[in-house]
Design goal:
This protein is of the alpha+beta class. Helices cover 23% and strands 26% of the residues. The strands form 8 sheets. It has a 9-stranded mixed beta sheet with strand order 6-7-5-15-16-17-14-19-18, with helices on both faces. A hairpin with a 7-residue loop joins β10 and β11 (187-190). The protein is globular and about 85 Å long. 53% of the residues are buried.
């Protein structure tokens, strides 16, 4: 009997089959795949998927996953020698100037990720897809490597290969329960049969929420109907394509009308997202016995609603006039999975060890995501960053049925819309509000939502400062695209932060309490810094995966013996720390640890600027100066009669503190600080100024500037891995080899023309090069420096002074590699004690 972990995969569609195959390729063959339908046509989304593979995506990971799907299916051939991928290319059309501009942006994403793509003119669009009426077409995005995955054929081939490697497949088998006793999976139940399992992976598609419920796991997924129609034969396509569902022309997207098209043998297949959202209740799906499922009758294929397609059929005939000679021959509403942010759900459950999911995965990304999850299961980490898809990334409010239903339907409606990277949701709003919200509304805050928090980006109350501010601080003019969700008022807020004092709402920063006799052991084992220090110490430190990749950057404050406060990046960190704490407590009850999310019950104000000390002096007799509370130190104090935990940290590069108190006292603390700061010129400042200031100082942002694909040295934060730490920690053994193998680094750039702009994800080229050398992560106008700044992943041979070009909306702008940090490299501003100028308490 095998001693390898017993893996049970639920679902044998394109994801479950590929996961079994990818596991087998890595030697994990003690695997059983259960499928409720017949393997030939399981009846889920794979069985009716049109098979479009589009690489274009703002996510580097998702683009990589698409490329892996293309690579695998290109080489996956049946006994007849034919492949499972049709490399017909993809063409996206623009019929409005706004869409044409967006195609240049999308082409930039492709170039950033190393995918061939170009914006072509109307004549080239007509050449590539002769059926198109050129009159409304302004241009198109041509991606020659994209195409069509023959999903069912490819799935059958990987099943055969996995079987040959020893994987067992059982179809016509319905899972009825999952045993999760003792906080981990134990078995999968099939009626009266109990199948022992060490690892269970739900690849059940839109049935995922039901499988999750069996394991006690919330799955934020909504099944939605999506219209697909197939025409009668098109005269010009007769005899053109060999396969019944084959194609030779590119897949075509007409996103201005929420439509896509593909040749379907001698017919045209038409997909529409233009209709109303059609939520699907699992209990309302048609019931078929396994032997009744066919290509045209399956649980995931619902009756067509022609009234929802009438306008789209007319538009299709207008764009492709030859369709006027055809009719709709077959049509259905296929069921697909949508989530609150449109992303897949991948990874291990926070509360149930060994229970994994790979849900809401489209054909485009199926191979790549399956491969990444196989890497996680077999080695503990993935070569491609999965943080944007992590099952645990949502806040609790975001997993409620009401939130999932509303936001998933909104994502369906917006799937082809031109969305600005800062564009907020239409709704819901005002879910998570800091205790300062009422005061922020009074100050005219402009809010944008992130992780269900409403966060001020600037305050209209500061607009009068535009007349007082020195003209050199003013924000330069912007183009229409970058001017969206931007205000020149942010310049005033940056100016006051640098020259006087400002207060920032930092409440949305996720905070955990880590307590218990094993707290130091836990954090010492998971982080790159020593946690065995005296109370009062604060560390900026890293969480790494086993391969030495950065999974998060956090701050850890030692409040007392066995009492730590962690400032983290969100729910993924909470899931990780809580899981590790549970394991440690189980292994050694004497070293139990409790990890609690204290964010909802607390709040935080960042009080920063050269006059922060005199503001604090008006609120307390306690000494808070640099000598009394050193940099990266914390202490309990009383401000205006309010108990506060003060941490001497600054993410904007100016002297000051993060000031924490309980949520019930938050508004009182805000009022006290705001009143005390009036004679010092205090302002409330928002995220736009914050981003500009943090980039001037060169501070990194996890998930934007660095991910699990990067190690600390190349990300510019090698200092967070303490050389003095001799104890082992997760990822330590892999760091040296990984750093030696790195060929890129996070590089600071300044634009040669101060008014140039980037927003992030733009490709960066070496002078004269056709292929991008890297891509922008973060960018902002530096108000203090009077020029635009960008950080980018670029080859590590570049040195200060070297020139590069950043492509923004199809135009290249000159930039120069700069020495960092750009602002206050001597740290005199953030640590004025170094300059013998110490803002302190009243005695100073």
């Amino acid at each position: 009997m095998s001693t390898a972990p017993r893996i049970v995969i639920i679902g044998a569609g394109i994801v479950g089959a590929n996961l079994a195959d990818e596991l087998a390729q890595r030697g994990a063959t003690n695997t059983l795949v259960l499928e409720q339908g017949p393997l030939e046509t399981p009846g889920g989304s794979t069985s009716h998927a049109p098979g479009l593979v589009f690489s274009t995506n703002p996510s580097k990971s998702m683009t990589a996953f698409a490329q892996q799907t293309i690579e695998k299916y290109t080489h996956l051939r049946g006994p007849d020698g034919t492949g499972s991928y049709l490399a017909v290319g993809a063409l996206e059309l623009a019929t409005t100037p706004e869409r044409l501009q967006d195609l240049h942006r999308r082409a930039g994403w492709n170039r950033s990720w190393g995918v061939e793509a170009q914006v072509v003119d109307t004549d080239e669009c007509r050449r590539l897809f002769p059926m198109v009426d050129p009159e409304p077409v302004l241009g198109g995005l041509w991606t020659p490597g994209d195409g069509l995955a023959l999903a069912l054929k490819g799935t059958r081939l990987v099943i055969e290969r996995a079987r040959r490697a020893g994987v067992e497949f059982r179809d016509r088998t319905t899972v009825t329960g999952i045993d999760t006793s003792g906080g981990r999976v134990r078995a999968v139940l099939v009626g009266e049969e109990r199948i022992p399992a060490d690892v269970v992976v739900s690849c059940a598609g839109f049935w995922g929420p039901r499988i999750g419920e069996m394991a006690g796991v919330d799955v934020p997924l909504l099944p939605l109907g999506h219209q697909f129609a197939i025409t009668s034969p098109v005269p010009s396509l007769r005899g053109k394509n060999e396969l019944p569902k084959g194609a030779s022309a590119p897949i075509l997207r007409h996103q201005d009308r929420d439509l896509y098209f593909r040749e379907w043998g001698d017919r045209i297949g038409i997909g529409s997202y233009a209709h109303r959202p059609m939520p699907v209740a699992l209990d309302d799906l048609p019931q078929y016995r396994a032997e009744e499922i066919t290509d045209e009758a399956m649980p995931s294929s619902l009756p067509f609603t022609p009234e929802d397609f009438a306008a789209e059929w007319e538009e299709s005939q207008s764009l492709l006039p030859e369709l006027r000679q055809t009719s709709v021959d077959r049509a259905f509403n296929g069921v697909f999975s949508f989530t609150p942010d449109g992303g897949s759900l991948v990874g291990e459950s926070a509360g149930v060890d060994g229970f994994f999911m790979a849900e809401a995965v489209w054909v485009t990304h199926s191979v790549g995501i399956s491969r990444a999850l196989a890497e996680v299961i077999t080695t503990g980490s993935s070569e491609t960053d999965l943080s944007g898809l992590d099952l645990n990334r949502f806040e609790k409010i975001q997993t409620t049925r009401a939130y999932v239903d509303e936001t998933s339907q909104q994502n369906f409606v917006e799937i082809y819309d031109i969305l600005h990277p800062r564009q907020p949701r239409v709704s819901p709003h005002d879910l998570r509000l800091s205790p300062f919200h009422r005061r922020q509304v009074e100050l005219g805050a402009f809010f944008l939502e992130a992780h269900s928090w409403e966060r001020p980006h600037w305050y209209e109350a500061n607009a009068p400062l535009l007349d007082e501010m020195p003209p050199e601080w003013a924000a330069p003019p912007r183009d229409d695209w970058s001017a969206q969700f931007h205000s020149p008022v942010a310049a005033c807020e940056a100016w006051r932060t640098r020259t006087a004092v400002a207060m920032y709402d930092m409440t949305a920063l996720t905070r955990f309490s880590v307590t218990g006799p094993g707290a130091a052991d836990l954090l010492d084992r998971l982080t790159t810094s020593s946690m065995r220090r005296r109370p009062g110490a604060v560390s900026y430190t890293l969480l790494l995966d086993r391969a030495g990749g950065i999974t998060s950057d956090i701050t850890v404050a030692i409040l007392g013996e066995n009492d730590y406060q962690v400032g983290a990046n969100g729910s993924i960190d909470l899931a990780y720390l809580a899981r590790e704490a549970r394991h440690q407590s189980q292994e050694d009850p004497a070293k139990w640890v409790e990890v609690r999310d204290i964010t909802p019950g607390t709040c935080c104000i960042g009080l920063w600027g050269p006059l922060a000390g005199e503001v604090a002096a008006r609120l307390t007799d306690e000494e808070l100066g640099a000598e009394e509370l050193g940099y990266f130190r914390t202490r309990s104090v009383t401000l205006a009669g309010i108990p506060v935990t003060a941490m001497r940290l600054s993410y904007v590069g100016e002297f000051g503190w993060e000031l924490y108190t309980s949520a019930d006292l938050g508004e009182r603390l805000w009022d006290a600080i705001f009143a005390a700061g009036q004679e010092s010129g205090i302002v409330a400042a928002g995220r736009e100024a914050f981003e500009s200031l943090r980039l001037e100082k060169g501070f990194r942002s996890f998930g934007t500037d660095m991910t699990t694909e990067h190690e600390p040295v190349q990300a510019g934060i090698g200092f967070a891995v303490k050389a003095s730490k001799t104890a082992d920690f997760v990822g330590k053994d892999a760091l040296a080899a990984r750093a030696a193998a790195a060929t890129t680094r996070l590089t600071c750039l300044t634009f040669d023309e101060p008014t140039s702009i980037a927003l992030g994800l733009e490709p960066v080229f070496l002078p004269g090069a056709e292929s991008a050398a890297g891509y922008v992560t973060s960018a902002a106008y530096g108000y203090t420096l009077r020029r635009a700044i960008a950080y980018a992943w670029l080859p590590d041979h570049l040195t200060v002074g070297d020139g590069v070009e950043v492509e923004y909306l199809g135009t290249r702008y000159a930039a120069t590699v700069a020495e960092e940090p750009l602002y206050d490299p001597a740290m005199d501003r953030i640590r004025p004690e170094k300059a013998a100028q110490v803002p302190a308490g009243r005695s100073a």
